[in-house]
Amino acid sequence: MSKTIGICLTLLYVLSFTHNVELRHIKGAPKSDPEPQCGYKSCHPTKPNMLNVHLIAHTHDDVGWLKTVDQYYYGSETQIQKAGVQYIIDSVVESLLRDPEKRFIYVESAFFFKWWKEQTEELQDKVKMLVNEGRLEFIGGAWSMNDEATTHYQSVIDQFAWGLRLLNDTFGECGRPKIGWQIDPFGHSREMASMFAQMGFDGMFFGRLDYQDKDERLMTQNAEMIWHGSENLGEKADLFSGALYNNYQAPDGFCFDILCSDQPIIDGKHSPDNNVKEKIDAFFEFVTKMAEGYRTNNVLITMGEDFHYQNADMWYKNLDKLIKYANERQANGSKINLLYSTPSCYLKSLHDAGISWPTKSDDFFPYASDPHAYWTGYFTSRPTLKRFERDGNHFLQVCKQLSALAPQQSAEFDPHLNFMRETMGIMQHHDAVTGTEKEKVALDYAKRLSVAFRACSTNIRSVLNQLSKGSSQETSTNYPLELKTCSLLNITSCSTSESSSRFALTLYNPLAHRTNEYVRIPVLDYNYVVTDSSGKSLPTQVVPIPAPVLSIKQRNSSAIYELVFLASNLPAVGFKTYFIEKSDDTAHKKPKSLPKKSTSYTVIGDKNFNLTFDTNGFLSQASADGMTRMISQEFLYYEGEIGNNKEFLNRSSGAYIFRPKEGKLHFATDHVSIDAYKGSLVHEVHQKFNDWISQVVRIYNGRNYAEFEWLVGPIPIEDGNGKEIITRFNSDIKSEGIFYTDSNGREMIKRQRDHRDTWNLKLHESVSGNYYPVTTKIALEDSTARMAILTDRAQGGSSMQDGALELMVHRRLLHDDAFGVGEALNETEYGIGLIARGKNHLFIGASLMREDISLKAMERLVQLETLLPSWKFFSNMKEYTQQQWLSEFTNSYTGISSTLPKSAHLLTLEPWHDNELLVRFEHILEKDEDSNYSKYVQFNVKDVLGGFNIVDMRETTLDGNAWLDEHRRFEFVPDPEDESYNAYGVFKKQSNRVHLLDAAKPLLGVKYSNEALETGELGAESNRIRRSANNRHFTMHRERTTQDERKSANKAYVPANDRAKYLIELSPMEIRTFVIYLE
Ligand SMILES: [Zn+2]
């Protein structure tokens, strides 16, 4: 909502359960107002004593699924799917221009801006008019409609920031979406609700929730609710959320698209086919039944589907008739009123209804569409694409930071960075990172991402060369440092380190802390000397590359060892370069495995933390925090169910759903061959389970956790069975059915086996119905001990027995599950089943008391270091001796002037508009995770970013595109007794809502208004440090101010203490976003 909305603030809104007073009108502006009339101001009026049927004309345009992004945009490959997005937008715009009554919403910025760039200025102006008048409204607005189970919050925020920014730059205030529109993702995360709220969205609608949950909610009028998105952030993470009645489809018989076969409305007076009466009767029957499930006299009907409106007139012509003939009946007493509407206008009607709403505190996972279809397979589907996506996020952050730190920028910097931003936006789509696309489309995503890596690499190479050489004179053809990324390090292969006897390794650390990191480099031999930036040679260790890795057929590498060293004190947001040289020195010894004894146990680690392996080669116990616990780890598999999908009972396991045959587990082996290697830096056990499963378990010196690097594949299918492979950790921890999984990498959510918080679950799939998405962490504990596992990509996970945690690492299936993709998830590479490799980190120790840092806090810190470790850049150094290298290059650099407190994270540092940075600071702990690290932290931004010439800073909503202090959100009031609605295990069916106000009421939200802040009574949460009055110089909500304007504005007001304005505080899990203006 913009400031132009007539604000009539007579009384402060005080949260009460009885009555609330009028605060602001949204229809205050006179008709002649030249201001844009978009959003809530452009809604068609509803009728107070009728059932108002909001018809939402919409199209659902997947950013890749059965066809690639470009195939969908251009409409090629029609034999796969008749879908062309360019025609959709063309056609809709034409229809909208003809009739001001019509409305349309558009969601995916990836497609919209591709179309926009191809239009003439004339047409662009017309589209701007449509947007300004609220006739074309952007909803969602991110680059894609992201998945919610397998995405990481950092990437979700990024893709919203970018989509909303282009909308803002192009359309201003009227382009800003108010509503989240997650109509197709397969279940919904609590963190997503929290992010929507923090981005300033007024509400969110979604399509898919468990069929039992949905029935229950419709029966009890709880399908629309206030979702508490965070246990740490309070009200500012609350989001009004509504489950749609019919997913996102039109009612049966009312699909008027060129892709549908329903009858049009035939209204020829004397036509023998005239069907007006029966159509309207059927429609009324549908909406009347639907209205029983919802609380107000408004219902939202989605009129559209996948790639609909390629011929928009077909839809609109029939909708016109539907509205006309339905509303004609009002003359005869009908109480049903149809109107063209949008989700925001519908939400406004709900808000204006002035009633209270139920609340929700857990999430909508797992999603089941029928008793035998739990959509929990996609949590793991395409594990290598999921890992590549996470690499993409890592590289994007490095690219953003270095582009921001560049002494000199060339003209391609922005396009390169934008390409990477946009590619990562595409990757978040609910058929991309999910692995639910066709194989060819998955390959297209991977290809795009590798092109994006190349584009961003050129920025990075330029910046690192400038910073290393201390001069910006070098041209791109003449960089002294190659700074290559070895993209095959995941199979321990790297051309530079393998082909050069002298090379430099530049480690770029994107964290705002100094880090110590163990580095591993594939090499041909065991005699290398590593010199750090001060010329000191470092201790090294060489370990052999495990035989199963060496025998990967397509691994085109001669490396047989890994060189290990500790890179210590890596500069924050900076780099350190190491010089690595092969030596003739005979002091180096060839690594040897410990002698094998069939009678004794193998122990790795030190006295603080160690793991024991039994004589069969399996992990058998762990010692940590002074206690020894029984703990084992093994690989097992489920066989995928095979069925004809004709009825629920005959569902196959597939790309979307996980359906194990009889829920039965099979052991991969009963004996593991092991080799152990111990040196001063790392202890390793190399395990071989069978011909297609192996693993390295390692503990680095001084580390109180272990790394499990698994290698799985090709999964055998010769027996005709697809297989879904899990790694399982068993312990003697008495977890009593309770375990915890993260939500998009942030807050943890409590799970209970065979149970849901808000309804009485009837479980027909005992295993897959207990699977949850694990983006980064799964954990369990009792009063004494705790076990947690970090993942390096999204995986499905569960605790099927007390004390046990399982993660699905890979799956290969031979049948389709009949949800549209039309292919079995049978990934192959080089003609054989796909091989996947990945890492899990195991933490085990005391659940409560620890001397310095709690296990939970340690997990958080390691989670950050594994998400964003230093990026390795390799340069051949054959032209330089070590001495020349030392004297000619700057080998250590930091881009910030002060590191952040350990629990604070520099979530974002990127160039934004000219002379602007977009910066996010985040507190990475939850409130009770540690007595020390969970505390508030405070620091001064000018201290941290001292290297930048900062002239001003202003806080924005999470997406970075609206000023926080000017942003208003609708406020909704919870049902009184629902305060305890979701208390664990408590389910209250009965809703006892309160009518707060009569019809035609006002908007309640004043939470972030300046008035509220002045009194100190309300809304201070998002603004803990009182904003400097200086901020008021920024007038319009959405307009960019020029530097000159800012300067003259600054003259008018000289703050008493400039530094104070840059002092910020973070509470647990808080993210604060700022635009920083540079000289
Ligand atoms: Zn979709």
TrEMBL record:
- Cofactor needs: Zn(2+)
Q: Which InterPro entries match?
A: Gal_mutarotase_sf_dom, GH38_C, Glyco_hydro/deAcase_b/a-brl, Glyco_hydro_38_C, Glyco_hydro_38_cen, Glyco_hydro_38_cen_sf, Glyco_hydro_38_N, Glyco_hydro_38_N_sf
Signal peptide location: 1-23
GO MF term list: alpha-mannosidase activity; carbohydrate binding; metal ion binding
Enzyme Commission identifier(s): 3.2.1.-
Record-linked Gene3D superfamilies = 2.60.40.1360, Glycoside hydrolase 38, N terminal domain (3.20.110.10), Glycoside hydrolase family 38, central domain (1.20.1270.50), Golgi alpha-mannosidase II (2.60.40.1180), Golgi alpha-mannosidase II, domain 4 (2.70.98.30)
Name of the molecule in the record: Alpha-mannosidase
Q: Which terms are listed as keywords in the entry?
A: Disulfide bond, Glycoprotein, Glycosidase, Hydrolase, Metal-binding, Signal, Zinc
Per the annotation, how and in what number is the cofactor bound?
Answer: Binds 1 zinc ion per subunit.
Q: Listed GO cellular component terms?
A: lysosome
Q: Which family does it belong to?
A: Belongs to the glycosyl hydrolase 38 family.
Write out the GO biological process terms. mannose metabolic process
Name all Glycoside hydrolase family 38 central domain ranges.
Answer: 373-449
Entries under Pfam families matching the protein: Alpha-mann_mid, Glyco_hydro38C2, Glyco_hydro_38C, Glyco_hydro_38N, Laman-like_dom
* Catalyzed reactions per annotation: Hydrolysis of terminal, non-reducing alpha-D-mannose residues in alpha-D-mannosides
CDD domains for the chain: GH38N_AMII_LAM_like (cd10810)
